Amino acid sequence: MKERFFWKNAIFQFLKDWYNDDPVLSVFTSGTTGIPKKILVKKKHFFERAKKTVEISKLKSPGIKGLLCLSPNFIAAKIFLVRAIIFKWKVYCVPPSSNPLRNIKEYFDIASMVPMQVFSSLEYLKYIKILLIGGCSIPNFLEEKLKNISSTICYATYGMTETLGHIAVRRINGSNRSIYYKSFGDIYLKKDKRNCLKIFSSCSMDSWIQTNDIVSIKSDNEFYWIGRYDNIINSGGIKIIPELIEKNISFFIPDRRYFISSISDKILGEKLILVIEGDPFKLKIPKNFFCGKNKFYKPKKIFFITHFTETLLGKINRNMIMKKLIQKI
Questions:
Q1: CATH number of 3-228
Q2: One-character DSSP codes across 136-180
Q3: What is the value of pTM for the model shown?
Q4: Would you tell me which CATH number, out of the four given (3.40.50.2300, 3.30.300.30, 3.30.70.270, 3.40.50.300), belongs to the domain 232-328?
Q5: Dist. CA 228–CA 215, nearest whole Å
Q6: 205-229 pLDDT, tens per residue?
């Protein structure tokens, strides 16, 4: 019974901490910049960062209706609550689940979700005016579906605990959709030698934040997310970014979650594999798709997993899935 109401208690505890006299809050990182850890952040920085996303959505009027369906233990939910406090929103809270809109019968001005929740809620998105999607990258097949959604303005968001939530957004649907994230005015961007993003803002403890996200920077405030440095595979001396392959094959694996990984190989060191969620099926990829230089990017084996293990943020837990898979091979 206690677990059933844990999410409510977590909300109440955050609000209690927010309104006390302590100028700082303790929050846990999600691992974007390295090993998850507990950090202390200033409430005044929380306050300033919370206002930035609202400037994009233009939902500053009192009485705005927001739907909170994320885990209150993580930064996205906390910052959502702070926005509601600042702008006097009316927030309807539901327990975190994979399908948060299933029993919703009223309309909301704004909601935040992770991709898994969005996928399960496609037929109900008409109840949401503005949808902020974050926590992890959006699968290509899901983004293609969202492009055709006209009832809801969909934004992909980029941010983390260390930046106190969003520092950039990109429109997924409508005439203003883009493949580039556009950062807010107080954010400074640059890359390190690995082409990984570094971020500076006055709300980030006055120091550059180093991420493991590989990016291409288009301008001072625009960047394209490529993949994670942690996931790079060295196969036969060739460094491969799995996310690039995943993006290219997305149209051949509709409505399924999947990822590119590797297993040890005596000759190549690491051998590319494709892991797909759900029951086995015959994957049809044109023979010339992996010709020429692309031959190095062709998965050598395909594995099917009944159900993917997920992190608390709804991300595919690649490491845990691969650990279990290797034990069975």
A1: 3.40.50.12780
A2: SPPPHHHHHHHHT--SSEEEEEEEEGGGTEEEEEEE-SSTT--SS
A3: 0.89
A4: 3.30.300.30
A5: 9
A6: 678 999 999 999 999 999 999 999 9
